[in-house]
Every structure is written in structure tokens, then in C-alpha cells.
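Ticket opened by: R.M.
Priority: normal
Category: complex prediction / small molecule

The reporter submitted a protein together with nicotinamide-adenine-dinucleotide and asked that the result be attached to this ticket for the collaborator who will pick it up next week. Submitted input follows.
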Amino acid sequence: MTKIYQNYIDGRFVENGSQELIEVRNPATDELLACVPEASPDQVDDAVAAARHAQPAWEKLPAIERAKHLRAIAAKLRSEKECLAETITREQGKVLGLARVEVDFTADYIDYMAEWARRIEGEIIPSDRPGESIFLMRRPIGVTVGILPWNFPFFLIARKMAPALLTGNTIVIKPSEETPINAFEFARLVNETDLPAGVFNLVGGRGASVGAKLTDNPQVGLVSFTGSVETGKRIMTAASRNLTRVNLELGGKAPAIVLGGADIDLAAKAICDSRVINTGQVCNCAERVYVERAVANEFIDKVTSRMAAVRYGDPIADTSIDMGPLVNRQGLEKVAAMVQRAREEGAETILGGNVAPTEQGYHYLPTVIVNCRHDMEIMRNEIFGPVLPIQVVDNLEEAIAFANDSDYGLTSSIFTRDLNKAMQACNSLRFGETYVNREHFEAMQGFHAGRRHSGIGGADGKHGLLEYTETQVVYMQHG
Ligand code: NAD
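Result attached by the on-call engineer:
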């Protein structure tokens, strides 16, 4: 019997209001895993109403009490780590080792946000008047909505819910229709804690219906969205009708610059890992390389041998592989079409360049493309697959100019042993994050925020937490 999940609204799992169910399948085998509801418009409104009803009492709890609830949820997640990791792998396709890291990181992230309970401080501002005090308070926004993509589906629940709840907001989460099962399991575990009803709600469904309905609700104070640029623009347009705040974490096209004299083994490993982790479906990973001519051949040889050694397959059947399938057929077709167009534009595929010859699963061969030019689509648009395009450049200045000439502005990296050049790059690269001599991956205490079309606002650390607050300035005249 196929398992059918139910929406989680106001502290309980509710009968599915619409007849429509969404089938969730394993991208490695096409096996039907479960069905989730497409929430009815009334249920979407019920979830927001429940969050609104629960918010004032939740806000009144001392932050340290709210933090205890978060810690209880983190402990629940840890207690079912193995089973949650398998769920993520089955529906999303990442390798089991990475799914385990995702579960651990999610629990750690919730604990990290809980640590802020005693540290969110306001300000006392000097007044121009005698006998007056000016206080800047940090207040919750109210009801928040988290709309999620499929690539790190479990972690992204925490990235939105933990800072929202810690600061006194309530939340309604809508997972991606591609990977909702792990979110419904998350809700099951939340339900096993004594979190007050209505503080955390979960509704399943598609973006154009359930996502749009959530974004349009005037009771919602903040829509925190992670996903594609196109959807981000739609959400911003819909949110503008009620002047609802938005926090948008969108796509990326991260440049990696490799200079002469760099540790080429390190660069080749970090950049290869970037294209292989989560099958290249990571917003912040290196998506284009600018390598200085002096070390181009050495770098291309080393990165190509690493990519050639990547083993792919069904991550449940073989837990030792490096890479699983892409998330769905559209993802596979998009990657294949982009590589084909790159060839037509004059680039050369020196490794891979085709759909993998497997009987089932959406697998694409690890691919290295050289002779790329900056005007090619493959150097400008997000690929989201195990494909590495490389362009040779004459010097750092040229690399920086190409790197910055992009609609995207999420992450960037440079590999060099020259401190002056590293600093020059950090001062010139117009990106939310820059990694020097290391892989592209952020820390929970940093601030993950894209520029240009990569987003508005950010997540993580103190600055990410404050995105879930608004200010109130009190002017107190007291003699
Ligand atoms: P997507 O935009 O297709 O979907 C994301 C979510 O938005 C889904 O839940 C979907 O149902 C919903 N949605 C779709 N249309 C909607 C609408 N009109 N109104 C409201 N919600 C709607 O993105 P995806 O394919 O799931 O995710 C991949 C993208 O996410 C990539 O571009 C990737 O770079 C980006 N991403 C960015 C970050 C970051 O931190 N910047 C992190 C992970 C993924």
C-alpha cells in the first residue's frame, strides 16, 4: 500500500481537503515512494490562520523557553538519523553519506540557532534631549512562510524554521513537490515534541497553487524562499500586492579562479568535488572555472582525471558511489541540452558529455568542457549538473572581469599562494561569499546572501537571524 501523508496544521495531521495527491518517485529507480497532498486553498488559509493564532503566546514565551522547544526537535531528528537520511536519498537522489551529513547539519543548525536565545540584543541610543531614553527593540514579524527547493530539502526546513521560531515568529512550510516526504517526516517528529499547536505548520502542494496562495495571503509577514530566480521574481511580484517582506535565496553561477603558482592538486580536488557533490545541484558550488594560462594544462589534466574517477549509480543499491542521479527527467534533459549547445557554440567536451548509459535513473556522465568563452551559455547560466566548463585567461584582472560580468552574485572562489592577489580578488569580486583556497561551502555562523539575481537578504548567523525580526524604537521621556 502506498503511504499517503497528511498536511500538518495547528498541531495535528488533517484529512486531505482536496482529492488531489502528488506522487513522489525515486529518481534512481522510478519507484513510487509515497503520495503527499496538494493542499486545498482552504487548508492553506487554515495553516496561516493557525500560525497567526499561535503567534502572540509564542512570542510571549522567554526566548530561552522557545530555545528548549528547538533543542527538543533537534534531539528528535538525531534519534532517527539513519531513517531520515535514507528517506532523503530515496526521494532526492543524493548519496547516503551526504544525506547523513544533511541530517546532522540540520540538527546542529537548530541547536546553533537555539544558542542565540540569550544573545539577541537591542540597542540603547543616546538622546539629544535631557531626560529621554531611546531604545531599539527587536520584535518578531509574526507569521512567516518558508517555500523550499528540492536540493537540500531537509536542511532548508531548519534554515527557515529555526531562526523564525527562536525570534518569536510562527511558520508555515511548503516543501518542494519533488521532495516532500522528508518534510512530512520532519513534521511527524515535531508533533512528537510538546511544541505548542500552530507554531509549526506544513502544507504540501505545487508552487503555482499552494506556493502562490501562501505568498498572496495578507496575514503573512515574511516569505522566505529558496529556489530559482524565475520563481523568486514571481514571489516578489505576488508579495508586493500586500507589501509582504521577502527573503530570497536564488540561483548561482559561482566562478572559481585558479592562478599560476596555486596548489593545483587542491584546486582540482575542491573544484571536482563542487561538481560532484549532490550531483552538481548546489547553488553555491563552482559552476565555471577561469584558469591562468601558465597552469591551464596541469589543472585541466588533474581535474579531468578526478572527474573521470567519479563513480555514479543508485545510491541505495551501492552506498560507496560518489554521485547519484539528477533529481528528475527535466533536470537531466536541461543539462544534456546545455552541453549540446556548448558544443555547437565551439566548446570541446574532453570527458563525458552525454546521458549515462544506465538502464534506469536520471544519470548524466561527469563532464569536463574546455575551450569555453565567456559569451557561451554554459559560462553564463546555471547548469545544476556534474558538468565543469573551463575558460583559459591571461591574468587575474581578466578573470575578475569575467567573474563579475554575471547576473548571479552568490559565491566565488580563488586558488592562489600569492597573498596580494588573494586580497585583490576579495576586494574586487562582487559576490556575497568568496572562498580562498578551499571548497565552496558556507558555515552556519556565516551569512549566506546573494547579490544581483542571486537574491535579497540572506540566511545563517546573527545577520540571518535578524532577518526574522523588525525593529521598534521607543522614545521614553522620563524627567
Ligand atoms: P523552483 O523555483 O522551481 O521551486 C522552489 C519552490 O518554489 C518549490 O517549492 C515550488 O513549488 C515553489 N514555487 C514554484 N512556483 C511558485 C510560485 N509561483 N509561488 C510560490 N512558490 C512557487 O526551484 P527548485 O528547482 O526547487 O530549486 C533549484 C533552484 O534553487 C536552483 O536555481 C538553485 O540555485 C536554487 N537554490 C538556491 C539556494 C541558495 O541558498 N541561494 C539554495 C538551494 C537552491
